[in-house]
Amino acid sequence: MSWQPEVDEIAYRHGLAAQLGGEEKVARHKAAGKLTVRERIDACTDKDSFVEVGSLTGSGQYDSMGRLVEFTPSNLVMGRARIGGRPVVVVGDDFTVRGGANDGAVGEKLIFAEKMAHDLRLPMVRLVDGTGGGGSVRNIETKGYTSVPTMKVWSQVVENLSTVPVVSLALGSVAGMGAARVASSHYSVMVKGTSQLFNAGPPVVARIGQIVDKNELGGSQVHTRNGVVDDEVATEEEAFERVRRFLSYLPSSVHELPARGDTSDDSKRRDEWLLAAIPRDSRKVYKIRPIVECLVDRDSFLEIGRQWGRAIVTGLARINGWPVAVVASDPYFYGGGWDGPSAEKFTRFVDLAQTFHLPVVNLVDIAGFQIGVEAEKAGIMRYGVRALAAVYQATVPWCSIIIRRAYGVAAAGHQHMGRFNFRYAWPSANWGSLPIEGGLEVAYKAEIEGADNPEQKRNEIEQRVRSLTSPFRTAEAFGIDEVIDPRHTRALLCEFAELATPLREAGAPRFGLRP
């Protein structure tokens, strides 16, 4: 006799699992504008590439003869797939089964999936739509006791942050450990209007007297502004495209180097408008993103974290095909002065570059850390020195281009001064311990106050000092590598990217996410 009956049962059980939470719950889920978990996995990964692991996991009910009469599938689907032709591990919560909350098998499947990504050295993609933690209060009655909170999966989660790229999408209301899984990623995305993230949902928050709906409490407009989540998109399909783009810049693990991409963009391209990109009037601002997009390969810049830490712009790009990490000051916010979130954003991004061996390109226009009573109360110096530590712990190749200001302690961290780096300046650059505007009154106080015409004296001193701040004076003392024509910047960056390639070291020290 053959094993055909058991093979038939495999197909039968797969059919039950494919029903997810049942026709009614699936219809309600899709009516909310959301894809089912398997539709999400198919939309996020290469066609027909998903190989499910643990497809028969769930809770079965049997009759007195041991025959299966009812089956509730696990609400976590996982397996291996390909994105852009490259293997990945993907896990997805099924909201149609108990709202994506933990059942008896989810915890073990989560641990298994994280281990699989780590040991196979594959990127981890999480499609989160539920709590994924301890489940419902109803479990207390079912089990007859309460459990001490544990996070058995967390050692794997933390280990993966220093080993493989981790991307998480919040695709519904995620709370508790589900929220933590989203935040513990190298890149995270929420869908505007349909995604929410919180420690505890509105019913629990109402117990402390705050009556809010789920979007007010934890919508994308909250968490992409405070840095818990990197970016927001309009649709799930756009979120899946962000996954593909982000992973395309990174290696599969720290044991590899990022792959080179298309090299069709002219490495010696000159853009004439760069000559006037920085205003001569230091009080005027300018738009930094067009400058970034002009210097990197066309259409290659993927900005990360646009809505928070807004004094800097961070993102991944390619230069002559080579993936790089780009940091640029944005004078539209606080005049380019760093607040705590900007310093924190910088720290996280430098750590990402260090972890995955990406050369750093830093376009510098730093007025310093923010000043004033509120800045001091917010502890800006604590955030600032963490950012400096990230720079001085980094070993990846680094190129700084000072395009306008570089002042104070913040500017002192524009690169690690104890190792070789590339450092250029545009003719528009100026630097010092303090901006002249604020430093004259302190350094020349007695001379100014003692003059017959203090305002005239102040202007005379300022003109005299400014004549000494030309970047050419610093270049004479070899305080800068070169003062360059802005139009030549792309060619120099292409040379930097080429020279940086053999300097990147797979398996080098890495930090993952700094606590």
UniProtKB/TrEMBL annotation:
Gene3D superfamilies according to UniProt: 2-enoyl-CoA Hydratase, Chain A, domain 1
SUPFAM superfamilies, alphabetized: ClpP/crotonase
Pfam families for this protein: Carboxyl_trans
GO molecular function: propionyl-CoA carboxylase activity; transferase activity
CoA carboxyltransferase C-terminal domain location: 260-505
Protein name: Methylmalonyl-CoA carboxyltransferase
Species name: Alicycliphilus denitrificans
Domain of life: Bacteria
Domain CoA carboxyltransferase N-terminal residue range list: 1-263
This protein's UniProt keywords: Transferase
InterPro entries reported for this sequence: AccD/PCCB, AcCoA_carboxyl_beta, ClpP/crotonase-like_dom_sf, COA_CT_C, COA_CT_N
